[in-house]
Design a protein that fits this description.
Elements: H1 13-30, H2 33-71, H3 75-130, H4 133-138, H5 141-173
Helix pairs in contact: 2-3, 2-5, 3-5
Length: about 170
């Protein structure tokens, strides 16, 4: 659409609302940027370890431990079995480390999402208190509260899952 008074194209209404919402949400998110960045770092670390697991399995366990153990006998077999045990230990350690990092990532991102949601709830509550009393005569308060609650939960879920999905997608592209 074109604004006839200025001749400049206008953004679609949905785009303008989304930008406005992001501008309002951005200060709340940036207040918690350290915890969000920590969560993303944990997520990247966990994904790195998950990518390394097949490499360790292929190179160390199969090529350097399992195949030599099957082909050898006597003293060589004992060395190969020792390598196999060490490689399996490395796999378990990487798996545990990846699980711990994933848990830390989710925990820290949940903490940030809940903090932002709390700030949003407070802002909505304050906005409701600034409305004139006649507004509440015209609007059903239950529906207004229900809509605000569902919108805040949607934002909280986006903040909880969105950054981790982006990290996973970026790692998949690389």
């Amino acid at each position: 659409p074109v604004d006839s008074s200025r001749g400049a194209p206008q953004a679609p209404a949905g785009t303008t609302k989304a930008r406005s919402a992001m501008r309002k949400l951005a200060p709340m998110v940036t207040r918690h940027k350290l915890i969000i960045l920590a969560s993303l770092a944990w997520s990247i670390g966990a994904l790195f370890l998950q990518v390394e697991l097949p490499q360790v399995l292929g190179a160390n366990v199969i090529d350097h431990a399992l195949l030599p153990a099957l082909r050898s006998n006597g003293a060589d077999r004992s060395l190969a079995e020792h390598r196999l045990l060490a490689s399996v230990g490395a796999l378990v350690a990487l798996g545990v480390a990846a699980s711990v990092m994933t848990a830390l990532s989710r925990r820290t991102m949940a903490e940030a999402a809940y903090r932002v949601e709390g700030e949003l709830r407070k802002a909505v509550f304050e906005a409701f208190h600034q409305l004139p009393a006649r507004f509440f005569d015209q609007v059903q308060v239950g529906q207004l509260a229900s809509r605000a609650d569902s919108d805040l939960q949607a934002i909280q879920q986006f903040l909880l899952l969105g950054p981790q999905i982006v990290v996973r997608c970026l790692v998949a592209l690389v």
